[in-house]
Specification:
single chain, alpha/beta, 2 domains, about 400 residues, Elongation Factor Tu (Ef-tu), domain 3, TIM Barrel
């Protein structure tokens, strides 16, 4: 792939279903974690058997798997890295994502054939650091999220062309610098640098004056407090061409702790956008692609730090999500005007559903008939993971994600 023309689309996977959907909906590579050494402990993550299956699936499609090893390990864990590297090598992992230089050195010793990508947690903000990581053997650096497009271009211009540069284009932002935060550990005992963040930056806060207990300073809108640390989500779907022209090799989507539905929709949007800008230089990304990013659960969006005249990056009003659509089913097979599906969220006969088609605008259809797992006519599909059949005028491929507007128009 010519990365100058079409950068890699890199998607997250917190479990095997997310992995499968990421690949189906156009990811060139997927990053994931095993049960240890990953910066997201909440997802199921991957066992050794699942990791091997993931690599086999991805490589069969000509795609790649990157394994995170970006926590800050304690002394007692260092001896575990040799086995970790051996298992990654046996599975066929294409790259490690690391933030600690000691871990980097040991992984290069234990598995020298596996590429090294420097994690955003390393805080690469200048070309000198990027050069040194390259000299140490890194193939890629994931830049700090605090950089502007102009700063990224300078790094690209002053580093070896062989060094790949990756940048986040979508997902949750952290109020701390490049994920280096102690707030969770101080307030809850859960260490964010070991994948255990409780996200206290999303909580509601208020200020009081020490000698006037109960008197709140007017920096918030109501008695619920203020979300002074609550960062908006990143969304660069309209600005990928600018990032590509600055020298980005890989567009990275955040979200290993998010749903497989999120992975499918956002991967599909960025795949379509990356393809569009490669084929249509200078033209705006079509609105249907942009609107897809609004159809997952998300916080208010911003463009992060990429532009100097950016609006405020915090949402001071609340810490909640915007969620207008739900996944309702995954297609298992299609035959003679009927889809066999695995239900995810309840829907009813007569509801209008949307089928998410790889690389194309979603198609809508109305469910005229439903048969339940016993083959009987039903008014709704309402058993989680239950196998139903529904009428559909489109021949949908196995794995297609179906969703519904929560307002059920």
């Amino acid at each position: 792939m010519n990365t100058l023309l079409k950068p890699e689309v890199l998607s997250p996977a917190g479990d095997p279903e997310s992995l499968r959907l990421a690949l189906m909906y156009g990811a060139d590579a997927v990053y994931l974690a095993k049960k240890s050494f990953g910066m997201r402990s909440a997802p199921d993550n991957f066992s050794q058997e699942e990791l091997e299956a993931a690599c086999n699936l991805a490589h069969g499609l000509g795609k790649k798997i990157y394994l995170t090893c970006n926590t800050l390990p304690e002394n007692r864990e260092i001896d575990q890295l040799e086995e970790f590297a051996a298992q990654a090598k046996a599975a066929g992992v294409d790259a490690f994502i690391v933030s600690d230089i000691g871990v980097m050195a040991l992984l290069k010793e234990y598995a020298p054939e596996i590429d090294i990508h420097i994690s955003t947690q390393a805080g690469t903000v200048n070309y000198a650091s990027a050069r040194e990581f390259y000299k140490m053997g890194a193939k890629r650096t994931v830049l700090a999220r605090e950089l502007s497009i102009d700063e990224i271009k300078t790094i690209r211009d002053k580093t070896p062309p062989e060094l790949e540069i990756e940048a986040f284009v979508h997902g949750a932002m952290c109020v701390s610098f490049s994920g280096r935060c102690l707030l969770s550990q101080y307030l809850t005992g859960r260490n964010a640098n070991r994948g255990e963040c409780a996200q206290p930056c999303r909580w509601s806060y208020a200020l009081t004056e020490k000698t006037r207990e109960g008197t709140y300073f007017p920096i918030f809108e109501d008695d619920g407090g203020t979300y002074i640390l609550n960062a908006k989500d990143l969304n660069m779907i309209r600005n990928l061409e600018e990032l590509r022209n600055a020298g980005i090799s890989s567009f990275k989507i955040e979200g290993r702790a998010k749903s497989s539905y999120y992975t499918a929709v956002i991967t599909n949007a960025y795949r379509a956008a990356a393809d569009f800008i490669a084929e249509n230089p200078g033209k705006p990304v079509p609105e249907w692609i942009v609107s897809e990013t609004e159809k997952v659960s998300h916080r208010e969006y911003s463009t992060g730090f990429y532009f100097k005249d950016m609006p405020p990056g915090q949402n001071y009003l609340d810490g909640g999500y915007i969620r207008r659509y739900d996944v309702c089913a995954i297609v298992l097979k299609y035959s003679d005007g009927w889809c066999e599906i695995s239900e995810r969220n309840r829907f009813f006969k007569g509801d209008e559903l949307e089928a998410i088609i790889p690389g194309r605008e979603p198609v809508k259809f109305r469910v005229r008939e439903i048969t339940d797992p016993d083959g009987l006519s039903a008014e709704s599909a309402n058993k989680a993971a239950g196998i139903y059949r529904i009428t559909c005028e489109y021949r949908l491929s196995p794995g297609t994600v179906l969703r519904i507007n929560k307002e059920r128009v």
